[in-house]
Design goal:
By secondary structure, the protein is mostly helical. It has five helices and two strands. Helix 1 runs antiparallel to helix 4 and helix 3 crosses helix 4.
């Protein structure tokens, strides 16, 4: 990214400021998720897709999974949303490498470089989405 400014809604900020701001936001969200259990009703909103269709979306259970991870229970996190829990290292890697580049430091290459991998990831998300809504045998365990 270098020193190019990020522009949105008429505001322009440097990538460094954007990465620091995103880190501060992530810490605040993590603190809220650590402190307030999403399993208790009324704290966080209901998934709009679930409310409208009665089916789970690929993101359903992510708040509960993150809460469990922040409280040290990886097994429960996998039970609430395995896809989100398993994707976190890749999200973190992407953030760290982008931040390193923004601050002019040497960073390893991106994780997903070929389009076939991105299409494969989309296929995994779509299969996960369909499978977690089937109440058949072991697939029922994918529901949050």
């Amino acid at each position: 990214m270098g020193d190019r400014a990020l522009t949105a809604l008429g505001y322009s900020v440097s990538p460094r400021v954007a990465y620091v701001g995103l880190a501060l936001l992530a810490v605040a969200v993590a603190a809220a998720l650590y402190a307030f259990d999403p399993r208790k009703p009324g704290i966080y909103p209901v998934c709009p897709f679930l409310a409208l269709t009665g089916c789970y979306c690929p993101g359903c259970g992510t708040l509960r999974a993150l809460h469990m991870l922040l409280n040290g229970n990886a097994a429960a996190a996998l039970g609430y949303n395995a896809l989100a829990a398993l994707a976190l290292p890749f999200v973190g890697y992407s953030y760290v490498t982008g931040a390193l580049r923004a601050f002019g430091m040497r960073a390893p290459g991106p994780v997903f470089v070929r389009p076939v991998l991105i299409w494969g990831l989309l296929a995994v998300v779509l299969v996960f989405w369909a499978a977690r809504n089937l109440s058949v045998g072991a697939l029922a365990a994918l529901a949050p």
